[in-house]
Design brief:
Layout lengths: L1 H37 L7 H7 L6 H14 L2 H27 L6 H23 L11 H19 L16 H7 L3 E2 L5 E2 L6 H19 L4 H12 L4 H8 L3 H28 L1
Length: about 280
C-alpha cells in the first residue's frame, strides 16, 4: 500500500515537472520571438522589408508585423506583409491540398478546380484569423494554427460539394461543380452549328431530385407521429393504402384521412419556408 502511495507521489511529481518544462519552453519561445521582433529595422524602411523577405524570419514575427500594420492603418504595408506570408506557405499548402484531394474519384480538371477552391478558402480563412487581434496563438505557433485551419476549410469544402460522409453532419444540398458544369456545355448539332445544351442533364437532374426529396423528407419528419408513419409507408416504402392500414392497425378510411391531413400540413410548411426565403 505504501509503495502504491509512493508511486502515486512520484508520478504526480513527474507530471508537474513535465508541465513546468513545457511552460519553460513556451516562455523561452515567446522571449525569442519578442527579441527577433524587437530587433527588426525601423518599420517600413528598406531594411525592414528586406529583412521580412528573409526565410530566417519566423512566420510568427510576420504575423506580429502584419497586426502592427493593421493597428497603424497602413493598408499597403498590411497587404505587402500578407503577400510575404502567403509566398512562404504557398508550396506547402498546394502540396497539402493535392494530397487530401488525390483520392477523389473525379476528372483531373475538376480535382484541380477543387484544389484551387480549397487553397483560396484556406487563404481567406487565414486572413480572417490574422486580422483578429484576439487570436494571439498565431503569434506563438503559426504552423500549429495553420494545421487546424486546414482541417476546418477542408471539411467545409467537402460539405459544400456534397462529399462529406460523416453521418453526424447535416447533409449538404449543394449540387457538385461537375454536375453544374455539364449543364453549360455546348453541343455539336448535325448542321455543324454549336448550340446550347437545351435538354436536361440526367445525372444533374437525379441529383436535384435527390436534394428535393431530402428536403421534403426533413419536412415529413416534423409531422406528428400518426401522420408521419402513414406518409413514410405509402410514399417512401411504396405500400398500398390497404397494406399501410394493416401495418398500423387502422382502417383504409383513416389512412386516407391522415394522408389528406399530412398534405395540408406539408403545404403549410412549404408556404412558410417560401415566405422566409422571400423576405429573408
Amino acid at each position: 500500500m505504501v509503495d502504491l502511495e509512493v508511486q502515486g507521489v512520484v508520478d504526480s511529481v513527474c507530471r508537474v515537472t513535465d508541465e513546468c518544462e513545457r511552460d519553460e519552453e513556451v516562455v523561452k519561445r515567446r522571449i525569442g520571438l519578442a527579441q527577433i521582433y524587437g530587433s527588426l529595422p525601423r518599420y517600413a524602411s528598406t531594411a525592414f522589408w528586406r529583412t521580412l523577405q528573409s526565410a530566417d524570419i519566423p512566420l510568427e514575427v510576420l504575423v506580429r508585423c502584419f497586426r502592427s500594420a493593421l493597428a497603424q492603418g497602413d493598408v499597403q504595408g498590411r497587404d505587402r506583409i500578407i503577400e510575404i506570408i502567403f509566398l512562404r506557405i504557398q508550396t506547402m499548402n498546394e502540396y497539402w491540398a493535392a494530397s487530401v484531394l488525390k483520392s477523389l474519384a473525379v476528372p483531373a480538371d475538376e480535382r484541380y478546380a477543387l484544389m484551387c477552391d480549397l487553397c483560396a478558402d484556406l487563404y481567406e480563412s487565414v486572413i480572417r484569423a490574422l486580422m483578429n487581434p484576439e487570436r494571439l496563438f498565431w503569434e506563438e505557433n503559426f504552423l500549429h494554427c495553420l494545421y487546424f485551419e486546414r482541417k476546418h476549410v477542408y471539411r467545409s469544402l467537402m460539405m459544400r460539394e456534397g462529399r462529406w460522409h460523416d453521418l453526424g453532419v447535416k447533409r449538404s444540398t449543394r449540387i457538385p461543380r461537375g454536375l453544374l458544369a455539364s449543364l453549360d456545355q455546348p453541343v455539336q448539332q448535325a448542321d455543324n452549328g454549336i448550340h446550347s445544351f437545351d435538354i436536361e442533364d440526367e445525372q444533374a437532374q437525379r441529383m436535384l431530385q435527390t436534394v428535393e426529396s431530402f428536403d421534403l423528407l426533413q419536412l415529413v419528419l416534423h409531422l406528428p407521429d400518426r401522420l408521419r408513419a402513414v406518409v413514410l409507408l405509402i410514399f417512401w416504402e411504396g405500400r398500398s393504402e390497404k397494406d399501410a392500414a394493416r401495418v398500423l392497425g387502422i382502417s383504409d378510411r383513416t389512412v386516407r384521412n391522415r394522408i389528406q391531413a399530412a398534405k395540408k400540413l406539408l403545404r403549410d410548411l412549404l408556404a412558410t419556408e417560401r415566405e422566409c426565403a422571400f423576405y429573408g
